[in-house]
Specification:
By secondary structure, the protein is an alpha/beta fold. It has helices at 81-90, 106-109, 115-123, 125-131, 160-170, 173-179, 189-195, 216-219, 225-230, 233-246, 255-261, 272-275, 295-312, 323-334, 340-353, 428-431, and strands at 10-11, 23-29, 40-47, 55-58, 68-72, 75-79, 103-104, 134-138, 200-204, 207-210, 369-375, 386-391, 394-399. The chain has two domains: 10-246, no CATH class; 301-431, no CATH class.
Length: 432
């Protein structure tokens, strides 16, 4: 029997986390009250190093609005339907583990209205998921039908739940191929959550599909050629990389390699194309999470990290410049509202800056460019957008111009011909 919890309940008020340390919140799903099937929770704060064994949830938020109520102590909080369905199914689910007493769930464990806290917790995300005893990959209630499945045999399933039941009972690889078309595997945030898990447990409605997916990729060897082609590349990649993580063979990626590899995965906020993958990126190449920054400024943060990384490479280890590729990737991934002229100017000028006869002379040393930014055009007057970079204590500008624009102060631009006086030639023993 269902009865409404106290409708007069106030909205739940979060107690602030201490950002100077690594504090996290953990959720406990409470038993239902008699004659009341409302979802009731408890939330406690822990230092992550002192937290009890806990399980992290990896899932798709799903579309707004957040209009499903859960109750925490004396407060009420609205969450989205997919998470509410998880709680409904999970509390009656068999096969729970001791660590499931405490759950880390971003929608509840982060005060989503507090940008500073979001920044702090997203920066910690790789620690949160890698230190969890296990991660539950929640694929939903299974009512969704797979898109793009046209291989022989896949049309036998009514929906994902039907395929999950067949996989659970018989291990039919055709059912697995169908499951891998779930929306879950198309999302960007789940990539690092799935890969960084010590143990991944896959749940569809009340059906546990796996306690460890290391054997899943072996199943692909039993698929016929047609069915192999039907398995989404992104899902296959995620499963294989997660297996490497749990066998100790996973290697963190250069930032551009991570961004490029998962450019096809979906997210709502374009900035999450960077922030959502930081756990897969080498520590020295991670940008600082800041949701106050614009897409443009985040772009330049990534450019600066890339320049610094390329500078620190020794000349003998130098790779081909990635700045041009990174800019083209950003254009495709962000669909930024930015003029063709600005994209062209920034791409060509910053790539030229990294040419071997300019900034490339600093290979093996600290990058002399210490900051990069963008100044937007004024709403009146003739001022145009311009990029700037601080080079050895001096700020220089790159103007965003088109064929008809004229500038009275172009002399502020650091001309590439003038780099000789700024960039010293490396000594012979430094380049040998």
């Amino acid at each position: 029997m269902s009865s409404a919890a106290d409708p007069a309940s106030d909205d739940y008020q979060y107690q602030p986390l201490e950002h100077a340390t690594q504090q996290i919140r953990l959720v406990t799903l409470l038993d239902p009250l008699e004659n009341d099937d409302a979802i009731r929770l408890d939330i406690n704060v822990f230092e992550i190093s002192e937290a009890p064994p806990y399980t992290a949830l990896s899932y798709v938020w799903g579309p707004p609005p957040s209009n499903s109520a859960v109750y925490i102590t004396n407060g009420r909080l609205e969450i989205r339907k997919n998470l509410y369905t998880f709680f409904t199914e999970f509390r009656k689910c068999c096969g729970k583990t001791p660590s499931d007493q405490y759950l880390w769930i971003d929608q509840l464990c982060i005060d989503q209205s507090n940008t500073s806290e979001r920044n702090h917790q997203v920066q910690m995300m790789s620690d949160i998921y890698s230190k969890a005893t296990s991660v539950i990959a929640w694929l939903g209630d299974g009512s969704d039908k797979a898109d793009g499945v046209d291989a022989h045999g896949c049309n036998m399933f009514k929906n994902t739940y039907d395929a999950a039941c067949v996989w659970k009972d018989s291990g039919d690889p055709v059912a697995l191929a169908y499951i891998l078309h779930s929306e879950y595997f198309r999302r960007l945030w789940i990539v690092q959550e799935f890969i960084l898990a010590r143990q991944i447990r896959v749940l569809v409605k009340g059906v546990w599909l796996a306690n460890d997916t290391r054997g899943w990729e072996c199943r692909f060897g039993t698929l016929d050629h047609c069915l192999q082609r039907s398995v989404p590349k992104s899902a296959y990649n995620i499963i294989c990389k997660s297996s490497l993580r749990r066998t100790g063979e996973f290697i963190h990626l250069d930032i551009f390699a991570a961004l490029d590899r998962y450019v096809g995965n979906e997210c709502v906020d374009p900035r999450d194309r960077v922030y959502g993958l930081l756990g897969l990126v080498r520590v020295d190449q991670r940008v600082t999470v800041d949701y106050e920054k614009s897409n443009d400024q985040l772009y330049m943060d990534v450019i600066l990290v890339t320049l610094r990384n390329q500078c620190l490479e020794k000349p003998a280890e130098a790779k081909s410049p990635e700045i041009r590729s990174l800019t083209l990737w950003w254009k495709a991934a962000f669909a930024m509202d930015i003029t063709w002229a600005r994209k062209t100017s920034f791409r060509s000028e910053f790539w030229k800056i990294w040419r071997s006869d300019t900034l490339g002379r600093f290979r093996g040393h600290a990058c002399p460019i210490t900051a990069i930014g963008l100044e937007k055009a004024a709403t009146t007057g003739c001022q145009v957008d311009r990029f700037w970079f601080d080079f050895q204590g001096t700020r220089h500008f790159i103007y965003c111009t088109d064929e008809i624009a004229t500038l009275a102060d172009e002399t502020e631009l650091l001309l590439l011909d003038d780099w000789e006086k700024y960039v010293p030639r490396a000594d012979a023993d430094e380049t040998s």
